[in-house]
Specification:
Layout lengths: L15 E4 L9 H5 L6 E8 L9 H10 L4 E9 L10 H12 L7 E6 L1 H13 L5 E6 L2 H5 L6 E6 L2 E8 L4 E5 L8 H6 L1 H11 L1 H9 L1 H5 L3 H21 L16 H10 L6 H18 L5 H13 L23 H9 L5 E6 L2 E5 L4 H18 L7
Helix pairs in contact: 3-4, 7-8, 7-10, 7-12, 11-12, 11-14, 12-13, 12-15
The protein binds nicotinamide-adenine-dinucleotide and zinc ion.
The site of nicotinamide-adenine-dinucleotide has 31 residues, from helix 4, helix 5, strand 6 and helix 12.
């Protein structure tokens, strides 16, 4: 047989930064991140939902770039965000059109400021225009700062499936600007905390203990506690992506997707009325209780986890869990097969071996899982804390 195998190795710098007021006069972080050789063009996409909270943001950005040598601000554009923007390719096409019109090339920069959904859409446009232009993400929600924004994925929904179209692309840099954290709707600010809880559960028992100790401060969304949780979670997520050995998810093991198989199904079944964070909260509760039921962790450990979720006023249950298909099975159960299909290969679900340590399993026992769903329902109804906050 003639032929040869070649190894192609590519390395990326994954730059994660934390700041406050990135475009305020005197903040040099952004100008230091951007290479100013030649005369690079910069196109900024702002999520429309930010306008009422940051009416001066666009002006600040123009002022920031006005005197920067070697960079020219091509334009600032407001586009619609939130889950709606991922439903079809309209926002994606609009962004593509702008990237083309403003002559953004592979030496230019696209900056995007917005929540996780907006970052996903614009990230996908940036990853596919010219086969990839440099992207600087500025996540503006808890969830996008502590998880999705520091990751390497982007995409939009299609065929009724979440993130069916998308790509892996390492952003040029991610700037977590804490100024944005404090204007989000309370529900959004709170829901994103579950990704910090999740990453603590699968990677860092000490971080989980810190969350337990500060659960009241986190519940009250106190500035210092929220920011510390976001920063520690972001670093854990980025470190796992950079050092976990599978940044582009070629294998089937997905530690950062703890509790996500049921969550993805719940989001889809509620037509995204249940946010990603709230759905993950229910999914983490389910998988944690299941881990205890099949003897992987002690019941007392599972109780610690459920207590943290409840103290944060995040849901452990949602009525959609009760929906059954024609075969009498809970419809959420089908999410397991869909999860396997999405990963490809053998079913692999990460469960807990102890708080802070995950373990991959290749089977979920349906009866035991059903019992967990029932237990969470009883628990939620008894405490009156099952439903997400209105
Ligand atoms: N790419 C990934 O790896 C990945 C991982 C997890 C989740 N996600 C995606 O992230 C999305 C959820 O992201 P999210 O939780 O950030 O919600 P979101 O993007 O839907 O934003 C929620 C709402 O908050 C508003 N908002 C955003 N920032 C604000 C601010 N600073 N002040 C006031 N309002 C603000 C938005 O306009 C929107 O209405 C989902 O689409 C999910 O699929 C992606
Ligand atoms: Zn998630």
């Amino acid at each position: 047989m003639r032929g040869e195998d070649f190894k192609i190795q590519v390395s990326f710098d994954h730059r994660i930064r934390f700041t406050r007021g990135a475009f305020e006069a005197g903040n040099h972080l952004v100008s230091e991140l951007l290479e100013t050789r030649g005369r690079s063009r910069v196109l900024v996409f702002l999520e429309h939902g930010l306008k009422e909270f940051f009416p001066t943001l666009e002006g600040e950005i123009y002022a920031y770039f006005k005197d920067l040598p070697g960079l020219s601000l091509a334009g600032v554009e407001w586009l619609a965000g939130a889950e709606e923007a991922k439903r079809d390719d309209r926002v994606y096409q609009a962004a593509m059109g702008m990237i083309e019109r403003y002559h953004i090339d592979r030496h230019s920069y696209v900056l995007v400021l917005g929540g996780g959904a907006f970052l996903d859409v614009i990230g996908y446009a940036a990853a596919t225009a010219h086969r990839g232009v440099r992207l600087l993400r500025f996540p503006t929600t808890t969830l996008s700062q502590d998880d999705s924004g520091v990751g390497v994925k982007n995409g939009i929904n299609a065929f009724g499936k979440k993130n069916f179209i998308g790509s892996f692309a390492v952003p040029y840099a991610v700037v977590n600007d804490f100024k944005f954290l404090h204007t989000q709707p309370e529900k959004t600010r709170r829901a994103g905390l579950i990704e910090a809880v999740k990453v603590a559960l699968v990677r860092d028992g000490e971080f989980f203990r810190w969350i337990e100790e500060h659960v009241e401060n986190l519940h009250d969304l106190e500035e210092a506690a929220l920011e510390e949780a976001v920063e520690r979670s972001a670093i854990h997520h980025a470190r796992h992506i950079a050092q976990g050995g599978d940044p582009f998810e070629l294998g089937s093991s997905r530690p950062l997707d703890y509790g996500h198989w049921a969550a993805h199904k719940l989001e889809q079944m509620t037509d995204f009325e249940l946010s990603h964070g709230e759905a993950v909260s229910v999914g983490v509760a389910l998988d944690t209780l299941y881990a205890a039921r099949v003897g992987l962790i002690k019941e007392a450990e599972a109780e610690r986890v459920l207590r943290v979720i409840e103290k944060l006023e995040l849901p452990v249950w949602h009525e959609t869990l009760d929906e059954r298909g024609e075969d009498g099975q809970r419809r959420v159960w089908n999410g397991l097969e869909e999860f396997r299909e999405h990963l490809g290969g053998e079913l692999t679900v990460l469960l807990l071996k102890e708080v802070g340590v995950g373990v991959d399993v290749h089977e979920i026992e349906q009866e035991q899982w059903e019992a967990c769903a029932e237990e969470l329902k009883t628990r939620a109804l008894a405490k009156g804390a099952g439903e997400p906050r209105a």
